[in-house]
Amino acid sequence: MRIVVTYKWTCDPEESTVRADGTVDWSRAKPGLSTYDPVAIELARRLADEADAELIGLTAGGKGVGAPIATKTALSRGLDRVVVIEDDSLREAGRSELAAVLAAAVRQIGDVTLVITGDSSVDVAAKMVPTVLAGELGWPAVAEVTAVAGQAGALRVERAIPGGAQVLEISGPVVLAASADAAVPHVPGMKELLAAGKKPVDLLALSALKVTPRNAAMTVTGRSRPERKARKGQLIDTADPAAAAAELVAALREVGAL
Amino acid sequence: MDFELTDEQDLVRSTVREFAAAELAPIAGEIDRDHRFPHETLPKLAELNLMGMPYPDKLGGAGMDYVSYVIAVEEISRACASTGIILSAHTSLATWPVYKFGTQAQHDKYLTDMASGHRLGAFALTEPAAGTDAGAGTATAVPSGDEYILNGSKIFITNAPYADVYIVFAKTDQERGARGMSAFIVEKGTPGFTVGEAEHKLGIRGSSTPPIYFADCRIPQSALLGEEGSGFKIAMQTLDGGRIGVAAQALGIAQAALDASIAYAKERVQFGKPIATLQAIQWMIADMATEVDAARLLVYRAASCVDKNVPYSTEGAMAKLFASETATRVAGKAIQIHGGYGYTESYPVERNYRDAKITELYEGTSEVQRMVIARSSLR
Amino acid sequence: MNAWIVVAEQPTVGNLIEVARSLGGPVGAVVAGPRSVAETVAAGGVDRVVWCSTPDDVPAEASAQAVADTVAADPPRVVLAGRNPAERVLLGAVAARLGAAVLTGARSVSIDGEKTIVVNAVYGDIAEETVAVSGPAALLLDGGSVPPSADGSAPIEEVSGTPLALKVIETSTHGFEEVDLNSAHRVIGVGRGLKAKEDLAAIEELADAVQAEIACSRPVAEGLNWMGKDR
């Protein structure tokens, strides 16, 4: 049985700067695993261990996603092997296009009955790639998943809904997007780090994949940096609670909040 | 000359940093304030194979290079200097002599457990009247039938009383000075072996350093580590490597102080601007950053010598000397940058400052390091 | 169809209807959920409503293929959905079926001849891009509130296809009162500066006094569980 977990190797926007013309400067950002992907990998690893399944990591992106540091980092989190599509044309890919590439790869890997993804990526945070991926595969998708148990074909899935939680029974292949708090990822030990370097990495050429073409095209015709309203950053000393309260009320009145 | 770390070394840094942020940083202030040994941390370190990183996999270690080990000590110390010394004293001072000088029987009995972190080690050389002049120790180990009888006292023993395995140095021959010293492996709980009250220290308060006492403590002949009379040499060689671990600890402390200063300088507003815009602060940060980077290069270079199996005594001394004095300087400047707030427990730099000083003292004072370096330079 | 709106379980799609109407042309809504939701949407100012009915113990996500079928049968320029998980799932199925472009940070949507122009916030809102889309566009937007009743009501067409293999076997509530922070006039933000859960009471008092909603940083909701995740 095969479980695929998708991950992303990318930069955190916190480390980027936006130029006055609206373009983003990533030169000082160091790429890493997207913040909540280890949660998805942890969830998938536990399920794979229970079900005695092979856990395959899958990623697609621009130059660098197939570099040894990227694949070793992903593998060290508990994957059995990784499948990587590294093609610079994917650097600016839209969510729909990326999902179609991932779907093609899942079909290529074969015998996959469960795909687990993170909640959203640290940089784009669209929350749509997992759902379009499911649509491309013709499978159902469930988001905000907090727990999974069972085998593919007979899964018990817990997910958050407005106001509470729900348990679902899923009897066919499915894409599950894990909530950021679905699991606390274990920190890999030193032996795991060393073992990661020896696990298989399959580099798939984009041209060799049967990707369903998009019927829409996007062109960026303008860029801008939104006006950031400066935070007032006012710190009120609370040594004297009564005076502090008066100062807070005055400050709130001054900005029109009261 | 390649200044880049390997992918594995980068991964060691990011992984240990993740662990340190989750498990060490949250309790670092508390164990310092309460002078509390972090028992709960040891199994976590062991689980991540961090307690015997440079030792072969089949002997219980992680089979990693020394640079990776040093990076791990640095990242651990950056979050908690007490945990940094607990680990490096165990790995470099206690486990190394067993690895290097132990018999097969001693490897079987102790090494796997120590390298895997299941048994904690300690190194007992220093005596009340024998610190830098370690060869003048007066602890004795008198042969008696198929045993030795240990008598004497040792002070400032990191990891006592929690350690299971103690490397103890005592004179088997009182007439030959340093050359009469031998090394022994002594287990916790051996009758005649007691531990005193832990010292109240300026810094690394989470590390336990009590005196230990031997009063007609009988140990088997098989407890002898190496040959009779080679104890001093074993101690000195062990310290050669141990000081690289301390250098890494100092580096971690310095980096923590620098990081805190940069973050504070960007946030603290005086005269309508962040103080990071003031040249006085900028120059302090520039000096701190340069010194920390220079320390890093010396520490990694010394570790690299260990990996290449070339002599590392001088290189280790240089790294320890420079990194420790850097840590003290940088931590002092960090408090200066923080102003009055830096003097309070609300900010971590006062702890960095208190933790830094010990790195100039233990595992060979800066004076000893200078002796080693001078001897090498003036050869 | 010019614009389809995808609705799952709740009729909080007032903003979507407004945006859809602003583009001119017919507006349709495909609804997966209780019939009452379809009725509210039908009275909210759309021209056509398709209701994918399913048994009670089947979640909205199970209608994803039926929703995609509906939209594909009358393909639009844009498909809009709100940000709830079920809505994202349905929109994903539609986007895949149409081969549509997907944008999730739309600040404004307008028409320029054959193209749909979207001003899209990117990378966590640090920058904005103006994107011209040719072909179908699937957009994620703030759903808004329940739409007020308009004059008249669109007809509801019921379809019941084969739902995907998902079944609800248990539902529980977490007891936090859920609020819509977006429609609050004042918001008080709190984080881990609060030492204990009991300190929230002081904030609640302040919130009552000034008529504000309370919002919190992620750790307060997720790690500490002192507030619901909607905050």
What does this structure look like?
With 258 residues, chain A is α/β, with parallel strands linked by helices. Chain A has two domains: 2-208, HUPs (Rossmann fold, 3-Layer(aba) Sandwich), CATH 3.40.50.620; 232-258, no CATH class. Helix content of chain A is 27%, strand content 29%. In chain A, the strands form three sheets. A nine-stranded mixed β-sheet of chain A has the order 11-10-9-12-8-1-6-7-13, with helices on both faces. In chain A, α3 (95-109) packs across α4. Chain A is globular, with a radius of gyration of 22 Å. The mean pLDDT of chain A is 92. Chain B contains ten helices and ten strands. Chain B has three domains: 7-120, Orthogonal Bundle (Butyryl-Coa Dehydrogenase, subunit A, domain 1); 122-231, Butyryl-CoA Dehydrogenase, subunit A, domain 2 (Beta Barrel); 233-377, Butyryl-CoA Dehydrogenase, subunit A, domain 3 (Up-down Bundle). In chain B, α6 runs antiparallel to α9 (349-358). Chain B has helices at 7-33, 41-47, 66-79, 81-101, 104-115, 231-267, 279-308, 313-338, 349-358, 366-377; strands at 121-124, 140-144, 147-154, 165-171, 181-187, 193-195, 212-220, 224-225, 269-270, 273-274. In chain C, 43% of the residues are buried. Chain C has helices at residues 14-22, 35-42, 64-73, 85-98, 200-210, 218-221, and strands at 3-8, 27-32, 48-52, 78-81, 101-103, 106-112, 115-122, 127-134, 137-140, 156-159, 166-173, 187-190, 213-216. Chain C has a seven-stranded parallel β-sheet with strand order 5-9-4-1-2-3-10, sandwiched between helices. In chain C, strands 6-7-8 form a three-stranded antiparallel β-sheet, with no helix packed on it. Chain C has a two-stranded parallel sheet with strand order 12-13. Chain C is globular, with a radius of gyration of 19 Å. Chain C is an alpha/beta fold. The chains are: A alpha/beta (258), B alpha+beta (379), C alpha/beta (231). At the A-C interface, α3, α4, β9, β10 and β11 of A face α3, α4, β5, β7 and β8 of C.
